[in-house]
Amino acid sequence: MAKWKTSPLGELCDVIGGGTPAKSEPAYYAGEIPWATVRDMQNEIITETEFRITKKAVQSSATNIIPAGNVVIATRVGLGKVCMVSDDTAINQDLRGIVPRDPLRLSARFLFWCLKSMSDLIVAEGTGATVQGVRLPFVKSLRVPAISLPEQQCTVAILDEAFKGINIAKVNAERNLHNARAVFESHLQSLFKQRGQGWIEKRLTEVSREFGRGKSKHRPRNDSTLYRGPYPFIQTGDISNADHWLTNYTQTYNERGLAQSRLWPKGTICIAIVGATVGETAILDFEACFPDSVIGIVVDDKLADKEYVEFLLQAFKSLLKEKGKGTARDNINLGTFENQKFPFPSLKTQQEIVAALNDLAIETQRLVIIYERKLLALEALKKSLLDRAFSGDLRDKKTRNHVAAVA
Question: Could you give the CA distance from residue 250 to residue 233 in angstroms, rounded to a whole number?
């Protein structure tokens, strides 16, 4: 099938730039005119902006007002994002407004879907060392299908309906994904709240053969001569990214690095004790070093099951995070655990709890994978529909019926 004929965007539309009113004039930001930045491009239509500015702010800066119902695209920060504006809206320098010169020749809503289909193309064109951006001539050179207004309206109706259905499916999949994860967390919490007969409150030091902070004596710590050797060096981010067992790492020590640290055994429970990752835990699946921003616990396997202890710490993570607040940088330390007691049943019961939680974790992960794949499939479907729509395939009745079925 022949593709639609196209025309350059610059022949059909005014491409309008933006700017930022002087930050030194706070009064400029106490007005009624919406002023959009990339941060406001969270949804298909910008209905609210973080800032509102005055007429004087518009007159004294490079910003311009885009009439309601038209398209704005990100051409710098947030490159490739496309939205419409619900009200007359001023824009900053990272955005450009795209306004059809003749609405009877080109529908703004059709243009919105057309530019959405070009997002990958726009991103691929981006250049710049620190901030990727595209230049005005490129924007004006983008090709827009030259089809009649009724055919544009038909395309818009089909895409609006299809994307409405896809977005509903996406919301449901995201809800199911959240619920699958929440079920495990809820069960984990209830286990340690309900407890049972014969459970005893103990400190972690009472069930450990070793309980201490990691070691990294050398200063500066980022000395390149310590790294790129055979010994895994665990950092707090690795712990945060792990799921119960820590199986991956991003850095290694060499012999010199090992000499100023220590190698903890496989099965050591790691607790991140500083910063945004405070309270995160995981079990080493290999021998590894780690710095003093991590506490290591080697459980006495005659008294406790290491997996039980890690699940226990997961359940008490919010408590640990709370104990770490109150300083410029959240942190906990060995003293945090001196008087903190945790519930311990018999070793046999611990192992039964671990088996049940691992079974639930496997089922949870199975559901998570299903819903994550569904979300990826929905995103791929969006792209496929846009590609087909703007290659002229929607002229074909069979294709239109397929798209309608998606809706």
Answer: 8
pLDDT at 1: 40
Task: Give the model's confidence band at 222: pLDDT under 50 very low, under 70 low, under 90 confident, else very high.
Answer: confident
For 267-282, the pLDDT digits (tens) are 999 999 988 889 999 9
End-to-end C-alpha distance for the chain, whole angstroms: 24
How many contiguous H segments (helices) and E segments (strands) does the chain have? 12, 20
Residues 6+ apart with CB under 8 A from 204: 211, 297, 309, 337, 340, 342
| CATH no. for 203-344 | 3.90.220.20
Q: Give domain limits for the chain.
A: 6-145, 147-199+346-407, 203-344
Contact 42, 66 (CB under 8 A): no
Domains 6-145 and 203-344 share a fold: yes
What is the token pair recorded at 132?
Answer: 């990727």
239 and 279 Cβ atoms separated by less than 8 Å: no
Report residue 151 as tokens: 């055919």
**Which phi-psi region, left, alpha or beta, contains residue 43 (left: φ > 0; alpha: ψ -120 to 50)?**
beta
The DSSP code for 274 is B
Q: Return the bridge partners of 377, or none.
A: none
Long-range contact set of residues 170-177: C-beta below 8 Å, sequence gap at least 24: 170/375, 170/378, 173/371, 173/374, 173/375, 173/378, 174/371, 174/375, 176/367, 176/371, 177/367, 177/368, 177/371, 177/372, 177/375
Rounded Cα distance between 312 and 350, Å, is: 10
Question: What class, spelled out in words, does domain 6-145 have in CATH?
Answer: alpha beta
DSSP state of 6: E
Distance between CA atoms of 183 and 190, rounded to whole angstroms? 11
Q: Are 355 and 312 in contact (CB under 8 A)?
A: no
> Alpha-carbon distance 122 to 112, whole Å?
14
Computed over every residue of the chain, the mean pLDDT equals 91
Buried b (16+ CB within 10 A) or exposed e, 127-150: eeeeebbbeeebbbebebbebeee
Which helix (H) or strand (E) is 36 found in, with range?
strand 33-36
Q: Amino acid letter at 215?
A: K
For residue 38, give the nearest of 166, 137, 133 by alpha carbon: 133
Residue 161: both structure tokens together: 């309906």
Query: In this structure, are residues 252 and 227 in contact, taking their beta carbons and an 8 Å threshold?
Result: yes
Beta strands 6-8; 143-145: pairing state: antiparallel
**What's the longest Cα–Cα distance across the chain?**
80
Q: What is the token pair recorded at 163?
A: 């994307």
